[in-house]
Structures are given as C-alpha cells and as structure tokens.
Task: inverse folding
C-alpha cells in the first residue's frame, strides 16, 4: 500500500468573504488501489455564500474525479475542500488558484475516519454552459506532487498579482487549515442531518466539529426524518439580556437537545443543557436539565461546577417566531425572548 501525503505548499485563502489566510495541510490519504462505488449522501455547498453555484460546480467535479482516483471501499461520506488563494472571474468563466482536496470517510459511531483522498494544487477553470457552471477539464491545470517549477508555470498568467508567491511563501496559522476542513465537513453533516460530531485525518488527533455552544454536541440519539422539532432547530439570541445564546438540535423521533450559554465576563460562562420532547402544541418540555458554571484560568483551561441536574421547564414557540423559556428551577428565563439568527 502506498501512502500519499497532501502537498505541503503553504497557501492562503481570500476567496469572497468565506476564508481568511490558511496554510496547506498535511493529511493521511491511501493510494489508488481499487475503485468501488458508494451510495453516500451528496455534498451541497451552502447557498447563502457568495458564488456558491461556482463552488458547487468545483465540489461536484472533485467528488466525481475522486471516484476514479481514490479508494472507495467502506466509504460513508465524501467531502471536498477548496482552499483558493485567488480567483479571476466574469459572467461566463472563472479561474480559481489554490489547493483542491477530497476526503473519503468511514463512519465509526459519531466519528468520521479518513480512509482515502488527496490534494492537488494549481488552477481550476469553471465555465458557464447553458446557464450552469461546470469545470473545464481541458483548461484546468493542477498537479498532485510538489513541483515548484510546474506550479510556477501554472501561475505565470497572473505573475504580476503574486499568485505563485502567495501559494508558496505565505505563512498563516495552521488553525485556519482546521477551520476550513471543519467548515466543509459541517456543511456536509448539517445538509444531510447526519450524526457525526468529530473526525480524524489519519493521525492521532480527533477533531471536534462542534464546541460546547452547539446543541449538536449533546445529541444522544440521531434525529428521525419527521421529527417535529425540525421547525425550531438553529441558534437564537436573547433580545432582553443580549448575552444569552440558545442552540437547538433534533434528537430521536420528537425530541430536542437545547443548550443555553450565558456569558459572565471574559473568563466565566453559565451553561444549561436540556433534553426535551415536543408536544402537540409545539412546546418542548424537559426534565433532568443541567446547570453548569464554567470558568477559565489564565491558560484557557476550563473548569466545570455543576449547580444542579434536576431542572424542569418548557420552551414555547411564539406567534412572532421567538421562543420563550419557562425555567421551573430558578425562573432564569422569565424575561428571556430568544430570537432566531442562524439555522443549520
């Protein structure tokens, strides 16, 4: 078995308003040993982003190309990742310079484990045909291996713009690499309502998709398709305090996981975690709710103090779309009015 590494070229991304600077990532990928088709959910680039239809065309091309190049046995998820350094476009064509990756994952419970994939660098050209963006294979120039001279030749068309220098010399923080992977994998998970919470790219590090502010972190049972709580999933902010944030995710047949974070200065946070069931009137009733006080030391390490674990109460969707909170334990929610601001 041959092991292929992602190219270690240092990249930056300034495409649209999506990405800030990021560096080329080194990841584990298995070689082209056999091809087997896998009926996996399709990747969808979220439509609210600028130029989403162009990015979707590149993502579709990467996934289809990967089916002829990488191991597809035992694959449960296929995720493309685009790290573009620069782009040149008009109404009929576009050129994207950067790195273009495909990850094929096997699902192990809530963990996605990479089984194959790889990265090319260079330029992908997209053209509009009959009103639809598609990748122009004949004009696309990408390379798999590190070859500075070949890459420089690909970028020569835009030498004055410093594209090659940006792709090989910029030194941004590695955290942006992880943030980009997380963004694409979360798009995949959320669009298909999948239960995955973490992933690994072949090393020892297990990377969390969601932090403690997301209700998805606390989902205990994957949501069923007809869960009525689908109508209220997403993130909310309390218009009364301006400091309380609520996140809701579906679980099971008619349940919801709810987490509320209420900041208490720069180094502390009060958190409530609830698991409730929606009734016929659309209200979510919970029992065994948890209240947790989180504090952070000078090194950023968090400590938890559990205040109680027997909370009861109700979340009610109002006619104006806001959600109110009846907290039977402390009456903390008596003035709260949560307004929706972001959905999954």
Result:
């Amino acid at each position: 078995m041959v092991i292929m590494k992602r190219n270690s070229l240092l990249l930056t991304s300034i495409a649209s308003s999506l990405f800030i600077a990021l560096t080329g990532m080194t990841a584990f990928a298995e070689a082209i040993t056999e091809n087997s088709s896998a009926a996996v959910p399709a990747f969808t680039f979220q439509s609210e982003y600028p130029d989403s239809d162009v990015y979707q065309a590149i993502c579709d091309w990467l996934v289809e190309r990967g089916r002829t190049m990488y191991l597809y046995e035992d694959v449960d998820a296929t995720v493309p990742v685009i790290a573009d350094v620069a782009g040149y476009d008009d109404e009929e064509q576009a050129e994207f310079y950067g790195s273009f990756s495909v990850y094929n994952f096997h699902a192990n419970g809530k963990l996605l484990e990479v089984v194959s994939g790889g990265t090319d660098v260079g330029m992908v050209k997209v053209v509009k045909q009959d009103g639809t963006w598609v990748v122009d294979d004949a004009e696309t120039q990408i390379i798999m291996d590190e070859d500075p001279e070949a890459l420089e030749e690909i970028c020569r068309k835009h030498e004055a713009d410093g594209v090659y220098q940006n792709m090989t010399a910029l030194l941004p923080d590695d955290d942006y690499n992880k943030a980009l992977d997380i963004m694409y994998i979360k798009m995949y998970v959320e669009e298909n309502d999948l239960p995955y919470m973490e992933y690994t790219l072949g090393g020892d590090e297990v990377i969390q998709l969601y932090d403690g502010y997301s209700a998805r972190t606390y989902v205990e049972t994957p949501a069923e398709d007809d869960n009525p709580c689908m109508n209220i999933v997403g993130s909310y902010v309390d218009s009364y305090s301006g400091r309380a944030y609520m996140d809701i995710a579906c679980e099971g047949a008619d349940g919801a996981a709810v987490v509320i974070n209420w900041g208490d200065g720069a180094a502390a946070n009060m958190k409530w975690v609830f698991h409730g069931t929606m009734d016929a009137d659309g209200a979510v009733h919970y029992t065994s709710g948890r209240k947790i006080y989180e504090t952070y030391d000078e090194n950023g390490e968090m400590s938890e103090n559990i205040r109680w674990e027997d909370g009861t109460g109700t979340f009610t969707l109002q006619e104006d779309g806001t959600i109110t909170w009846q907290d039977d334990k402390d009456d903390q929610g008596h003035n709260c009015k949560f307004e929706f601001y972001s959905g999954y």
Residues 24 and 142 are 15 Å apart (CA to CA). Helices lie at 52-67, 148-155, 163-169, 175-191. Confidence is low (pLDDT under 50) at residues 1-38.
